[in-house]
Every structure is written in structure tokens, then in C-alpha cells.
Design a protein that fits this description.
Signal recognition particle alu RNA binding heterodimer, srp9/1, 8 strands, four-stranded mixed sheet, alpha/beta, 2 domains, 17% helix
């Protein structure tokens, strides 16, 4: 049809242990596990696309080519909560000024402020140090 475009319906995360990863993300996003079908575990639909976890044989290796940006009014507090849920800080990205975390299987994601923030000409953010929100 002319004038129509596809919409992102679901985001699927390949993982070795979909139950474990779905539990982590369910708690993090406040979207409980809603269904299990074959190799998939699905979170309850919220705003935006659905989120599913597909069982695969091989673990994540290397850098994600796609990642989530999660908005939080208090990224530092969110970091502590993510770590308590089993995630971890990825220090390798600290020089970029973004808060980059990893889920229990190593999938990277960022925690950013909900509103606009400055990024310099080299792509570095400064919202964590308070000088660029």
C-alpha cells in the first residue's frame, strides 16, 4: 500500500538461557514474563515493541551491533539496581561518557537521562559528571 511503512513489532534477543535473561529484563523493565512458546520467552507488552528472548546454542561474543538505550532520571541509582539484578558495568566505554551496562549474558545497553543531553563533537556525553545535561 502506498504511504504505509512497517513498524517495529518485537525485539528479539538471542540468548543461551532465555528464562534467566527474561527474568532479568522483566525485573529491570517492570514487564513480567507473559508467555513461553517453543524457544521463546516473552515479556508482557508495554509501551513500544514487544520483547522476546530466543534460545540459541552460542553465547554472545563481541560487541552488540544493536543496543537498547534505557531512560532513567537517576542513572547512578539505576546502575546499582541493574548490578543487584545481575547486570554489570562495562568500564571499557567509560571514556565516552555514557553509562554502558551489560545484562547477565553480556548484551550491552545504555542508561541515559530521559530528556535531552549534550554530546560533544567526538560523540562523548557528559551527563554522568553533571556538566552536560
Amino acid at each position: 500500500m502506498a504511504g504505509t511503512h512497517p513498524k517495529i513489532k518485537d525485539l528479539i534477543i538471542d540468548c543461551v538461557d532465555p528464562e534467566r535473561l527474561a527474568s532479568f529484563w522483566a525485573e529491570l523493565l517492570g514487564r513480567p514474563i507473559a508467555a513461553r512458546t517453543g524457544p521463546y520467552v516473552w515479556l508482557a507488552r508495554g509501551e513500544g515493541p514487544g520483547v522476546g528472548f530466543q534460545k540459541v546454542a552460542e553465547p554472545t561474543c563481541g560487541k552488540n551491533r544493536l543496543h537498547f538505550d534505557l531512560a532513567s532520571a537517576d542513572p547512578a541509582a539505576e546502575q546499582a539496581r541493574i548490578e543487584a539484578l545481575g547486570g554489570r558495568l562495562l568500564d571499557a566505554y567509560a571514556a565516552g561518557g555514557f553509562l554502558v551496562m551489560a545484562d547477565p549474558e553480556g548484551n550491552a545497553f545504555c542508561v541515559i537521562p530521559p530528556g535531552p543531553f549534550e554530546v560533544d563533537d567526538d560523540g562523548r556525553a557528559h551527563y554522568l559528571d553533571g556538566s552536560g545535561s
